[in-house]
Amino acid sequence: MCVRRSLVGLTFCTCYLASYLTNKYVLSVLKFTYPTLFQGWQTLIGGLLLHVSWKLGWVEINSSSRSHVLVWLPASVLFVGIIYAGSRALSRLAIPVFLTLHNVAEVIICGYQKCFQKEKTSPAKICSALFLLAAAGCLPFNDSQFNPDGYFWAIIHLLCVGDLFSVLDFPFLYFYRFHGSCCASGFLGFFLMFSTVKLKNLLAPGQCAAWIFFAKIITAGLSILLFDAILTSATTGCLLLGALGEALLVFSERKSS
Predict the structure, then answer these.
(1) How many structural domains is the chain composed of?
(2) What pLDDT is stored for residue 170 in this prediction?
(3) Mean pLDDT, rounded, for 217-225
(4) Which of 29, 108, 142, 212 is least enclosed by beta carbons within 10 angstroms?
(5) Among 79, 48, 104, 93, which Cα is nearest to 179's?
(6) Is residue 10 part of a domain?
């Protein structure tokens, strides 16, 4: 079982890394920035692969009534916002910057759980939220490659992600796929979603959070070597502060699980 969990975790990290690097390459280097086409292509590929997986018995899809589908409509709208805004932001921002801003969605989720679900929040989780907010808030003032459009779309993206996780129950767990681009991106997006579901089913929340954190670290680090990213000492400090905040989040999840 331990070996199986490790294999699932490594598969998730590989899909996470490949998906982000492929999308960044197509969006930034090839300049293919058409979010509507991204969304349509990724949904088409994902839908076909999901149907094939269901036919092969790899996944289980429960049939739902029309009333249940209507409940999913608000989540579908937010999903469109995630795809569109995420692709716009990633085409203009370095991957480490994008991931640091994306982590603010965790603060939205934490705030919703604290204020509306009255969940008890550990000191480590509160410190994590403060660090994540501070890191994201300082980035625009210290980013030598500051792009106002990129930051604007990143804010829209993280708001959609935070609202989707906090309020709504969306059936197919497409949250981790922000955009599609080429055929490879469509397939990688699906396998990233598939490996994420397997990760969440096999591992405890704290272990799952640790694998996600590890995937983000290796993706951000490798992207600096592959793409044009100028990191000043101030920008690096913001990124490290964000990493510290997420590390505290992982610690709090492992402690509570």
Answers:
(1) 1
(2) 44
(3) 90
(4) 29
(5) 79
(6) yes
Query: Collapsing DSSP states into helix, strand and coil, what is residue 135?
Result: helix
Q: Which amino acid is at 228?
A: D
Note whether residue 89 is domain-resident.
yes
Q: Is 64 among the domain residues?
A: no
* Cβ contact 96:239 at 8 Å: yes
Query: What count of other Cβ atoms lies within 10 Å of the Cβ of residue 12?
Result: 26
Q: How big is the chain by its Cα radius of gyration, in Å?
A: 18
Q: Kindly report, residue by residue over 158-209, the tens digit of the pLDDT.
A: 888 877 765 554 444 434 434 434 445 666 767 777 788 778 888 888 888 8
Separation CA 252–CA 250 (nearest Å):
5
pTM: 0.78
Dihedrals phi, psi of 55, to nearest 5 degrees: -65, -35
Provide the token pair at 211.
């694998």
Q: Is residue 162 part of a domain?
A: yes
The residue range of the domain holding 237 is: 2-59+70-256
Minimal CA–CA distance to 86: which of 17, 139, 146, 162? 162
